[in-house]
Amino acid sequence: MTVSDSTTTGGIHVRQDGPRDAPALLLIHGTGASLRTWDPMVPLLTGSLRVIRVDLPGCGRSAPPEGAGYALPDQAGRVAAALDRLGVEQAVVAGHSSGGMIATALAEQRSGLVTALALINTGPGMAAYIADELTIGPAQWPDLTDEQLRRLLSPAFRAGFEIPQAFVDETRGMNLQTFAATSQAGRAYLEERVLPERLAALGKPLLVIFGEDDRRWRSSSAAEYRAVPGAEVELLPGSGHSPNVEDPSRTAALLLAFSAV
Fold this sequence. Notes:
Layout: E1 2-9, E2 12-19, E3 24-28, H1 42-45, E4 50-55, H2 72-86, E5 91-96, H3 98-109, E6 114-120, H4 146-153, H5 165-172, H6 176-192, H7 195-202, E7 206-211, E8 232-236, H8 243-246, H9 248-259
Parallel strand pairs: 3-4, 3-5, 5-6, 6-7, 7-8
Antiparallel strand pairs: 1-2, 2-4
Helix pairs in contact: 2-3, 3-7, 4-5
């Protein structure tokens, strides 16, 4: 039976869609986002998969972390604990942008839980990062107009993409401390060891999806993942940093085929 529900466990908000007896696909959003990032794709996945989405600590409806901070291994540990409470023993894990780093950290911690990894526009290392041109201070944040917020969000999409109002509204409610801390944690994780090296050591099946028109990470850097034995690398012409939003049909089709292997 196909069921949809939402719950909060251990401070982590979790949304489940699809048959509970189907193979599990965990979706992890990127920095400054929430599980709503995946909304356009979910209906395309739930025919054959149990789709599980999480709001990372301090994002969406999840509480900021207590005790340990925003370090990526800590965030991955909280996600693992939430899956344990749901009784999920194995899952394919897909992450968008920095969510791909957390997916990797999760596989490093819990090899038996993660059967395969899919990274969507996740830069392999900081050398591939394209610096943001627009910065906003905390004092300016409450007075930003929708137009200014769209300018802030624009590098996360291909040029000319019409950013949905729901994303603008969500950004307005974003916790800037969480955004800054998570960004710093992602940088520290990549500077410690680049993702292709981490993934090669894990020996997990790997799918890398990259929008060719990404304005946050150089899309040419996707080729670096070919250093991982057996990795599949798919470039999506016409898509930017967020093909899960910009081109959900093609992105979901790639995930479905990968999850079925």
